Amino acid sequence: MSLNLSSITAALTDLCEKHTSLGADRFFRFDQEFSEIMASPSLADKTVMLMQPISSYFTGQNEAQPYKHVRVEFSILTPSTVGDYDEAETDINACEQIGLDILARIRHYSQNFGNTPTIFKTFDFVNIQGYPILLSDDNRAGYSYTFELYEFVDLSLNLSKWTS
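-> structure tokens emitted (164 positions)
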């Protein structure tokens, strides 16, 4: 397993495509990609999943045990009428539930039931955070979740990659 942008994108894309409220072509890796594609009338009225930039940091009790921690954030966004706060509240609640469905599937994967992606093997509910979103410029409301994954990382010096 390697926790990097490509592996996390692939895993979240797969989850998005398999959820009945989302589906194929509803996953976006970057805000700019989301903005460009949302201008398309074919997706303007669809619920989508947007991955936020990942971040990482390193920990370890000593140099022999370094771990890379990756913070993953995704948002579930749906069309919502600007200024209609009752509708926005309903939309936020629906998006929160879709996000919980996705977290439940990740949790299932983390427990190694059958043939499941190993990228989620270090997933733990202890570090999940969530918050509502209201994007008036994009006419969307939704819910965002963050969680952490981690893996051992080899930071041994490879002298063959250095000239001196």
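The chain has a mean pLDDT of 87.
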